[in-house]
């Protein structure tokens, strides 16, 4: 799935997208992502190609008070990519464009041994009988999303991503309004 975007907008995200994929790989147990870190894989090549990227990832390792090592990513870079993805999916789903600043990532929850996803987000993906709502699968076990009304925010729309069986992202999105946008190249910035 691709969305036409102007060259400047597309290029402005490339380093952050590379960082985002590296972070997912660090957090993941997904065989699909782990294969990319092996000799010849795209993540392996990106780390080999860029000392700056590799050092940034190493500098994100912090020692906890409990003696364990933790990974603390640059959250603003993650947020930027998640909001860009939400913008593109919004256009793909509704054929409408809303300003990028109306897409607000409000949560990024890696899957871990202990559950970190807030209960109110988990509840959003279920109906009143606690049956799972229908997700849109872009690629099974790689990327899925759902759009729900968030009762805790006066029924505003919320988009939730499920990425590589590694993390959930939660994004506030606007209601689709106005006329249908043409399929021209999208400008993310005004």
Automatic annotation (TrEMBL):
Originating species: Olivibacter ginsenosidimutans
Domain of life per record: Bacteria
**Name the UniProt record assigns to this protein:** Uncharacterized protein
């Amino acid at each position: 799935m691709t969305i036409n975007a102007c060259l400047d907008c597309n290029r402005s995200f490339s380093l952050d997208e590379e960082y985002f994929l590296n972070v997912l790989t660090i957090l993941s147990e997904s065989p699909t992502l782990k294969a990319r870190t092996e000799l010849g894989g795209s993540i392996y090549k990106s780390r080999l190609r860029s000392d700056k990227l590799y050092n940034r990832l190493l500098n994100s390792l912090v020692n906890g008070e409990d003696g364990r090592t933790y990974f603390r990513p640059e959250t603003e870079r993650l947020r930027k990519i998640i909001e860009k993805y939400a913008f593109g999916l919004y256009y793909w789903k509704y054929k409408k464009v809303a300003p990028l600043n109306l897409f607000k990532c409000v949560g990024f929850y890696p899957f871990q041994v202990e559950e970190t996803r807030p209960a109110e987000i988990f509840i959003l993906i279920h109906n009143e009988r606690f049956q799972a709502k229908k997700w849109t699968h872009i690629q099974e076990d790689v990327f899925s999303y759902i759009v729900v009304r968030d009762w805790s925010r006066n029924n505003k729309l919320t988009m939730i991503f499920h990425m590589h069986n590694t993390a959930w992202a939660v994004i506030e999105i606007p209601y689709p309004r106005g006329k249908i946008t043409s399929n021209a190249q999208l400008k993310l910035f005004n």
